[in-house]
């Protein structure tokens, strides 16, 4: 036990560079996205002429290369701007993390401020003062500033999108352009019409990758990521096929290949095989479910626990049955129960996440209800049992009146 890491370090005979297999890695070549790269470049090229490019809205499902293409084109735009002596500033913001008007304006402004003592704090300033500082910063920097708002549908309120999409009206020396990226194809339907028209001057749609395209992407990454002869035939094809079934998600394919390699190394195997891919698929699914459940609000966890207990006992439940169990669990834990209407909303939310299935069925003259099932009950049970905030259900057995009739 003197050196517990020595043997672990010397056992890594498969992976050469794990970072290449992460979605955040931007390669020098993006297979099957040449069309989208050229379309975005043709919009942003006006920045090299000192003109403000049109605002762009990019949408497509998760893992279709939207972020990678935007970052790739932005990197080349700045490089070309430096060669030509045209000031280009490229700012990327993930709105899943930075989601309020103040924080977005603060992050963009601080990009231009070098001294820590002059930077805008996380909170405390009036929003109009932060916006004023942003205008001054872009004007002082001159040239063109391209602002990428990834996961733009997560932004709270339309104000910041409206202000940024029309920022050129307030600028005197500098110019700015906004690129909005979203996985939600219906996002623009809910925007203020003024924001929709100014943000979506240009629209780009990224289609899902096919299995063959994902295979090409993984093959390119595998050359950089793995040692020679460390991956067996069929592994890349299997990862690609499984990811293609889930809407052509390149992130899913990369995660599957990376976790497969990690499992192979931990088992002490000399190469990645198809059995490792199947093991990785189960692990990724469990990790996804675990993370989703872990971050649920307490009341949602109690509703899920109620569904789990009820379906284990009776096979399936109606909304009314689940609510009866939910009320009993709240009493056992000393929690105030929600209304049946609110619990029905939570059931819909959990159904959308894929944690439970709520199928609408007809009861004839008694109307319609939902039949609820929990598809991955063993995994969910294991996760919920470790949650100390939930009521003790060790000796609890539901007795539903509807099931006794």
Highlighted features:
Arc Repressor Mutant, subunit A; 8 strands; three-stranded antiparallel sheet; Rossmann fold; five-stranded parallel sheet; 3 domains; Helicase, Ruva Protein, domain 3; alpha/beta; 405 residues
How would you describe the overall organization of this protein?
This protein has helices at residues 6-10, 34-44, 66-84, 101-110, 127-141, 159-165, 193-199, 211-225, 235-245, 250-266, 274-294, 298-314, 319-333, 340-353, 377-385, 401-404; strands spanning 56-59, 88-94, 144-150, 175-182, 202-205, 317-318, 357-362, 368-373. With 405 residues, it is an alpha/beta fold. The protein has three domains: 34-205, 3-Layer(aba) Sandwich (Rossmann fold), CATH 3.40.50.300; 210-293, Helicase, Ruva Protein, domain 3; 296-404, Winged helix-like DNA-binding domain superfamily/Winged helix DNA-binding domain (Arc Repressor Mutant, subunit A, Orthogonal Bundle). Helix 10 crosses helix 11 (274-294) and helix 12 packs across helix 13. The mean pLDDT is 88.
């Amino acid at each position: 036990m003197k050196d517990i890491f020595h043997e672990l370090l010397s056992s890594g005979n498969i992976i050469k560079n794990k970072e290449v297999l992460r979605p955040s890695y931007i390669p020098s070549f993006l297979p099957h996205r040449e069309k989208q790269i050229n379309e975005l470049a043709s919009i942003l090229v006006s920045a090299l002429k000192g003109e403000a490019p049109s605002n762009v809205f990019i949408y497509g499902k998760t893992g279709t290369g939207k972020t990678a293409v935007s970052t790739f084109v932005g990197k080349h735009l700045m490089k070309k701007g430096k060669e030509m002596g045209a000031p280009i500033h490229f700012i990327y913001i993930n709105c899943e993390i930075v989601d309020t008007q103040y924080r977005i304006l603060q992050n963009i402004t601080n990009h231009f401020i070098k001294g820590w003592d002059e930077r805008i704090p996380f909170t405390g300033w009036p929003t109009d003062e932060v916006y004023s500082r942003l205008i001054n910063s872009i004007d002082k920097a001159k040239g063109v500033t391209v602002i990428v708002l990834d996961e733009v549908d997560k932004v709270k309120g339309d104000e910041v999108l409206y202000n940024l999409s029309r920022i050129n009206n307030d600028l005197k020396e500098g110019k700015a352009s906004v690129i909005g990226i979203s996985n939600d194809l219906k996002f623009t339907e809910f925007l203020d019409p003024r924001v929709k028209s100014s943000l979506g001057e240009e629209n780009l749609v990224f289609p899902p990758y096919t299995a063959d395209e994902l295979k090409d992407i993984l093959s390119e990454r595998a050359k950089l990521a793995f040692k020679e002869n460390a991956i067996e035939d069929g592994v890349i094809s299997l990862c690609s096929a499984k990811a293609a079934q889930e809407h052509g998600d390149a992130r899913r394919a990369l995660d599957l290949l990376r976790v497969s390699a990690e499992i192979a190394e931990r088992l002490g195997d000399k190469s990645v095989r198809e059995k490792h891919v199947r093991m990785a698929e189960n692990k990724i699914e469990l990790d996804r479910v675990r993370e989703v459940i872990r971050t649920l609000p307490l009341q949602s966890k109690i509703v899920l626990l109620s569904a789990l207990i009820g379906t284990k006992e009776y096979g399936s439940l109606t909304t009314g049955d689940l609510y009866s169990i939910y009320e009993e669990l709240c009493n056992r834990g000393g929690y105030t129960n929600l209304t049946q209407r609110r619990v029905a909303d939570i059931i819909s939310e959990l159904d959308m996440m894929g944690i439970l299935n709520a199928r609408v069925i007809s009861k004839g003259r008694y109307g319609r209800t939902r039949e609820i099932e929990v598809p991955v009950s063993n995994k969910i049970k294991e996760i919920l049992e470790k949650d100390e905030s939930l009521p003790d259900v060790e000796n609890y057995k539901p007795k539903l009146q509807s099931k006794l009739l």
